[in-house]
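Entry for the shared binder. Reason: the reviewer on the internal report wants the predicted structure included alongside the sequence.
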Amino acid sequence: MPAAAPLARGHHGIDHLLALYIQTPATLTGNLFGIVLIGALFWPLAAPGRLLGWLGVVSTLWLVRLAHYLRFRRQGKGGAGTAGLRVWRRSWVVLVLFQGAMWGLAVWLFWGLGTPYHLLALLLIVYTYCLASVQLLASQVRVFIGFLGVVLVPTIVRVASDTGQPFHLELALILSLMFCIAVVMARTYSNALGQAIALKSRTDEMAARLRTENAVAEEARRAAEAASRAKTQFFAAASHDLRQPLHAMGLFAEALRQRSHDPEVASLVNSINESVDALEGLFGELLDITRIDSGGVDVNPAPVRMRDVFARLRLHFEPTAFEKGLMLSFRGGEHVAQADPVLLERVLRNLVSNAIRYTDDGGVLVSCRVRQGRLLVQVWDSGIGIAEPSLPRIWDEFYQVQGNRPLQAHQRKGLGLGLAIVKRLAVLMAAPLSVRSRLGHGTVFSLEVPPGKAPRTIEAVPAGGTKLPIGLTLEGRFIAVVEDDATVREGLVVLLQAWGARVVAFDTVEAVEAWLQSPAAEAPDLQLVDYRLPQGRTGIEALTALRARWAGRRLPAIVITGSSLGGHEDEAVKHEYHLLIKPVLPNKLRAMIAFKLGVR
């Protein structure tokens, strides 16, 4: 059947059929209105049998179409295949053509009755349904022409054959022209509808393709994120496992120095400590760059007192500067910056570390001053300087500046990631970073941060608190150590005892809790705890237990961990402890102990 051809084109034909059935309620409503008008118009004029017969047939046909539509909604719309839809369409076309034939029959039955106004009303009703069918049937021109044929051909013939009416032939000609106009309208509408349906199909196909591509892209993104997390976790786990023996090595080396006054032994210990320090720098740089690139670094701006940052930098770097004969100075500690305290300190640590490494004579100055409404934090050095052509590349990974003279061994340490980390962290903080340098005279790095509002209460730094006691003595001090690694624990105990402290050591949180229940337990002056402990517990639990036992005292604490993953900084603020990353050189541990015992 030619009318079924559109269904052979797949979704286009199905869309046509669904459009036909969607419009069926409107067409049934219009037909019902026309049936009522014809009945009311010719009830007093037509013979009862003729009018009632037509009304009975056309009403029955209307009810059949309604039932056909309702059945399609229940059965055909959701589950019928292409063959089933062809059957539904064929039956729909038959019913529509029968409906059109009934309107053509109405002209034969009621033409000539009543006044010319009755005849004009009859023609208007019939032709109105012809025009209304343009929207319904234009997508299938053959069916539309068939519908016009069964409606208008009988009408034209009946009007032309009525010799009793004046101008009947002219009226028949006008109806013929209206027939042709309706066909042209249907073809135009059919083309527009076909293009709209084709565009809808292409849009649906493109949307489906886009959903597929988005799903593939999302899967690739998840895979990349999983790989990035796995890389970070691998570096963290490997770093933690490798840091443990390095940490123990440094502790035992320092304990050996305390017990022997042989210059050769001291030289060997220094070499061991330098190697441990170099490895620590490598681990830190690799983990930092991995965390930043994987999006594992959050920025939490807060008021930062620069003198507190400077005090920690002094504690960390003054031993190194002292050993090299350099002066480490700080200016502008009275200012308060609005920045992430951890990231700001990390940036300055990397810059100061580089400054000390590449400076052999003179000193390093860390300053903070106001410039154009912002704080300009700068790190100055009198080191070897950087050649002008090398300045753009210093922020690249794995790039190390080569001067006019060969670098010393201590200057070649690292992977060339320090300044790359600084640049990334500065971008995260939205803090402009710049550098100026003069070869052979020194370098200055500048970081701009917004000023902050100073807290209401500012703790005073104890006089002499920033001085690093190179020959620290812990005579009379009692220190609690919690460390699950036996080698590291033994190294800590030996070193602390060599410094004159009394030490109690534990390997688990349970051991700490059991000791707290004994009458021999006494409040420690300082707690040194490892972060990761057996059975999934942490050093924070050990700190909490110790502090709960002596709730009236504020016990200072240092947490030592081999993991550099984020989160420890927030916990350090919450639980009031300072954090050290393994391996910890004895000089750094000694400085931190002095700081904790001095300010507490």
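Summary line for the report: Residues 527 and 557 are 5 Å apart (CA to CA).
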